[in-house]
Every structure is written in structure tokens, then in C-alpha cells.
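stuck on this fold:
=====
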Amino acid sequence: MDVLAEMSELTRRGQAFALATVVWRQPPSSSQPGARAIITADGELRGWIGGACAEPVVIREAQRVIAEGTARLVLLGTPDQFGGAVPDGMTVIPISCQSEGALEIYIEPIVPTPHLVIIGSSPMASTLASLAGVLGWRTDLVSGPDFATDRADERSMIVVATQGHDDEDVLARAVAARPAYLGLVGSRRRGATVLGYLADRGVPKEDLDRVRVPAGLDLGKTTHQEIAVAILAELVQLRASGALSRSQAAASAKPGRRKVTGPNDLAPAARAEAVDPVCGMTVATASSRALRHDGADYYFCCAGCRQAFEQDPDAYIKKETRC
């Protein structure tokens, strides 16, 4: 239940993560079928899916799942445990756990629901909110005076449709949120006037350059319903191309902004890894047991492997050299 509550909170905050579920175990693995864990994009594991042998592998595979947006079924164990009985499409990762157990884990990406903030009270704004709702997007429709910068973040898309009602003040607050998308509904002439006003009052040019005026695909003179469709079409197009994810990355990289990760711009977070010279398992150096020998650092998945190395280091160094 704690994992489910954590999933709900991460989803509410719009953060991408992966859910790992144990679907099969071979004793004496410490995990059980149905055990679950959440893995965040930066490699933090919350929950339980197995011991020290399984955890670093699952974290690495989960980060790849988040980055690619594709689920995978992972089989953890020694190759001779499975032989030719592994189904197509399953990822087999050899691990040399002293318990000689094995695990089958399903890892699925949880992609945040797009967040759209529409500022304004016009019929077009209401139509756009309805259309976004059909797509399942999380949509906030607010009036200009009710909009505050903290109602959006780097993952949000903001459409300013105040149409002459305090456009400058509202847009200034929207710019401060540094959203992935910021569009102003209005003519190019009106947009140039608003942006010029904000530039004269010290709003950085790099922030103003991110404002799209007019918002949406250019359909020429049309109805408010078609304007709403044009704006939504542009947002769908930008999301599909990954352009909004690049905007998220640029916004989060600015000094003073918190780091943001989204499903299209994620690469597995850098995790220093090494191969255990005793069992051959890949381990994260930050969490493994380390030993310095003859000026070189060696890393181990467990105390047993380190002890074996300490008793006869030359045997394992020669083995590693041959490999």
C-alpha cells in the first residue's frame, strides 16, 4: 500500500518513474511474487524487489525503461538456470547471487499525464479545455486574476487567452513559471506590443523568445472552435516530436531551477558501475563493497565475494585479465 500511495504522489507531481513487479521467483530468493518497487528517473528505489544482487540491475533496467517508454520483462539469474527455455522478448541478465535464487520482474514505465493550464474566460478557452479533457490531459482553466506562477512548472503547457484583459501582467507571471510551452492567443501585432512592454520592464529576452504568438497552428482567420483545435494540434505535434521535452530540459538546466525529467528527454542517470571480479556481476560502485589492492579498486556485490577475493586476489585478477 505504501508503494501505491507513493505512485499516486509521483503521478500527482507529474514525475516519470517505473514500477517493478516480481512475477516469479526461484527459491531461496528473498523476494516474493507480487512484491513491488518504484524506481525514479535518478535511480532511487522505493519498495522491495529483492536483495543486493537484484537491486542494482533492476535500477539500471528501470532507468532504461523510463528513457525508452517501453516495458520489459527481465529474468535475473545464472544462464544455466534457464537453458533454452527463455521466451522470445524476455531480457535475460545473468547475476551470480550466492543464494542461487532467480527472479522474473516486469518493469513498466509510468508516464506523467500532460498538464495544460489555460488562462482566460473566453469561449475559445472553454472549448480548448474540453478538447484537452477528451485526450485525458490534466487541464486547469483559470481566469487571469486567479493565475499564480506556482500553478505551473517546467512540465506544464500554458496558453494565455486573456485576450486584452491584463495580458501583460498575466503573461509576465506565466513566463516566470518557465513552462515547457507558453502560447499567447492574439494577433502577431498584439503579441509584439505585449512582448515589447515586458522587455522594457526587464523580462529577459531568452524568456520572451519562448512565447509563441499567435498560439497554435496558423489557420488564418477562423472561428474560436477552430482556434482551439489549432492550439491543441500544435501541442500534440510538439509533444510527439520531443520539442517540449527539450524545453523542459532547458528550463531545468537554468540556475536556481529544480531538475526535471520527462519521458522523452530522459537518459539513464549516470551510475558508476564495475564488474565484480569474483562472480562477474555488474555492481554500482556507490553502493558496493570496495577494496583497494595493488593500487587498483575492486568492487563486490556482497561480503562473500569480497572475502573470496581477499583470500586469493591473484586468482581473480588473472581470471579478469583472461576475460
